[in-house]
Amino acid sequence: MSRTIATALPVWVVVAGAAVAVALLVPRDQWWGILPVIAAGATLLTFVIQVSLQSKDGLVTRMLVTVSGVFVLLAAASLITLLLAGF
Q1: Which of 33, 62, 64, 87 has the most other CB atoms within 10 Å of its CB?
Q2: Which domain holds residue 59?
Q3: How many domains does the chain contain in total?
Q4: In 1-87, alpha helices (H)
Q5: Which of 82, 87, 86 is nearest to 19 (CA)?
Q6: Helix (H/G/I), strand (E/B), else coil: 87
Q7: Based on the number of CB atoms within 10 Å of its own CB, is 84 exposed (0-12), middle (13-18) or buried (19 or more)?
Q8: Of residues 63 and 84, more confidently modeled
Q9: Other Cβ atoms within 10 Å of 18 Cβ, number
């Protein structure tokens, strides 16, 4: 597994878990306010993981891949929550 995927995968798992937790535990009218908070937390987690690595080569690429995956996951979560809310 490449370093890029190895550092992105934990963030993606956290985002997917947080999105599922929000869908199950939070009232539907509050979903849209929490998804940006998940994105912000994922961005901070991405930064912490990338800075903690010894090698700084490819930092921007690894962060770009991770944040792009977070964007795709949250876009899918937004679409699913929109469909579940009945719009």
Answers
A1: 62
A2: 3-24+31-85
A3: 1
A4: 3-25, 31-52, 59-85
A5: 82
A6: coil
A7: exposed
A8: 63
A9: 20
Is the distance from CB of 65 to CB of 8 less than 8 angstroms? yes
pLDDT more than 90, % of the chain: 54
Nearest to 68 by CA among 43, 50, 85: 43
Q: Which amino acid is at 51?
A: V
Q: Which residues of 29-38 are buried (b: 16+ CB within 10 A; e: fewer)?
A: eebeebbeeb
Rounded to whole angstroms, the Cα distance separating 31 from 87 reads 13
Q: What tens digit of pLDDT does each residue of 26-52 get?
A: 888 888 889 899 999 999 999 999 889
Tell me the HSE value of 23 on the side-chain side, using a 13 A CA sphere: 17
**Distance from first CA to last CA of the chain, Å, rounded?**
40
Tell me: pLDDT of 14 over 90: yes
